[in-house]
Amino acid sequence: MKKIALALSLMTAAFLACDPAPVEEPAVYDPTLLSLNLRDFPDPDFPADNKPTVQGVMLGRMLFYEKLLSKDGSQACADCHRQADGFSDSLQFSIGVEKLKGKRQAMPVMNLAWHKNGMFWDGRSALARDQALKPIQDPLEMNESLANVVAKLSAEKKYTDQFIRAFGDPAVTAERIALAIEQFEFTMISNNSKYDQFKRGELALSSSEERGRQLFFTEFDPSGVKKGAECFHCHATFNFTNDEYMNNGLDADAEQKDEGRMKVTLDAADKAKFKTPTLRNIARTAPYMHDGRFQTLEQVVDFYNTGVKPSSTVEFLMQYNLQPGGLGLSAQDKADLVAFLKTLTDNEFLSNPAFKSPF
């Protein structure tokens, strides 16, 4: 009996010594707005119905890295928009779940809060929230139905809890998925490159970078007195894009295989026009152009110097690129331009833990 009593006593002591099982706190709606470090950027005009909140952004971040959004659970948005590559794809054309190639090069995802003229190369989606759902349903990409995505996420407690925190109840809907991804993408801000630090007076550019900067922001002079590369006409403003759709002279009329913006507007004047991408982090977002035809910045600069082709919709701004001899840039001029473009790399953005997978 003494042995039994001793054993019971030891068992009781062991039980009392154990830590109590953790009590899981219930998910609670939290509308706290997320504070963003805009630095020198202007305030973004967020949509009134979708200002980024701490919990909404976290949900969007989870979804951006969630492979359940694809048909076979093998791909997430982040697989074709990788942070180290400026949230673009290093492949010329992304490979979908059925091992099929996409039709265009994946555009980088950054500073979307300031894009007000449509998404995708052809602008077929008006807002980031509209864009967010299309790759899920595209047979060449994730090849899944929104109904299946909703069902899969609804079966995961971590998601129903996060929908409560972000939206106030556990209902998973396609609209809310789109809104959450839009919120996360609004926070993906790149504004601390070497060039930004130069603009703030925090450091100096090298002599080659400064010559490249001067070329970038100078118009071509037909008299030949001074050189200019004309870049700033299309890649101006703090975000290095005019947010417009343009034909930059990649192909002559007979060579144009992609109708570009015309597929959306049905206007022949928009044939072969594509959205002007930002040049931020351009050194990390190769390959270049809507079809990824150029692998290096040197090839891009060579193209604008002497490779632009005439067509019925080519931009008037390309008039000097189209003349015999093009812009007349020397080997040193082109090297300096590339050196300047590399100052637009934002290493803080490319490694920011706030944009990494939460899993």
What report would you give on this structure?
By secondary structure, the protein is an all-alpha fold. It has two domains: 54-190, Cytochrome Bc1 Complex, Chain D, domain 2; 194-343, Cytochrome c-like domain (Cytochrome Bc1 Complex, Chain D, domain 2, Orthogonal Bundle). 34% of the residues lie in helices and 1% in strands. The chain has 13 helices and two strands; from the N terminus they run αααααααααβαβααα. The chain has helices at 2-17, 54-64, 77-80, 128-137, 146-154, 157-167, 174-186, 194-199, 207-216, 262-265, 297-307, 331-342, 347-351, and strands at 245-246, 274-275. A two-stranded antiparallel sheet has the order 1-2. The longest helix has 16 residues, at 2-17. It is globular and about 80 Å long. Mean pLDDT is 94; it is low at 1-8 and 10-17.
**End-to-end distance:** 53 Å
Task: Specify the biggest β-sheet.
Answer: 2 strands, antiparallel
Following the backbone from N to C, one meets helices and strands in this order, namely: HHHHHHHHHEHEHHH
CATH architecture of the largest domain: Orthogonal Bundle
What is the number of beta strands?
2
Task: Please bin the fraction of helical residues.
Answer: 25-40%
Structural class: mainly alpha
Strand order of the largest sheet: 1-2
Name of the CATH first level of the largest domain: Mainly Alpha
Return residue spans where pLDDT drops below 50 for at least 5 consecutive residues.
1-8, 10-17
The CATH topology label of the largest domain is Cytochrome Bc1 Complex, Chain D, domain 2
Strand residue percentage = under 5%
Q: What oligomeric state do these chains adopt?
A: single chain
Number of domains: 2
Radius of gyration: 25 Å
The coarse silhouette is: globular
CATH homologous superfamily descriptor of the largest domain: Cytochrome c-like domain
Q: What's the pLDDT, averaged over the residues?
A: 94
